[in-house]
Amino acid sequence: MNVKMTLNGEPFSAETPSDSLLVDVLRLNGFTGTKEGCGVGVCGACTVIVNEVPVASCIYLAALAQGQDVWTVEGLTTKDPALLDAFVEKEGMQCGICTPGQVVSAYALGIENPKASESEIREFMAGNLCRCTGYVTITESVRTYLASK
Ligand code: FES
Ligand code: FES
Question: What CATH number did the domain enclosing 9 receive?
């Protein structure tokens, strides 16, 4: 099938099998910022925004994105530089696998609850797993990003 969407604010289309997952279509077309960790919708590494809502692109058919407004970490950090600045300033990353999903979810929280408390930040970000930072610097990064809004 030919899947068409708005991707990072630009028209995008790709020929792909009808059962392709969105994470695969993105990565095969150069949007490698979106990572695949668990592949079963649990870790959050593959998070992208579809119509202003975070989705796990590893369990989301590309066909469902037909005609939708999709944003990846590449587009979001270009559109809103404060996002990346906050993670750099607070050192909220280490491995590069979970970080894109953390950044995308931080953006989503900025849409849903820009005045989130620390506990609300932690609850919202609970679907983004990190196996090494202990979440303190990630939470600080998200808090710093929200403060910029
Ligand atoms: S790779 Fe999609 S949730 Fe883990
Ligand atoms: S920084 Fe990616 S798993 Fe911890």
Answer: 3.10.20.30
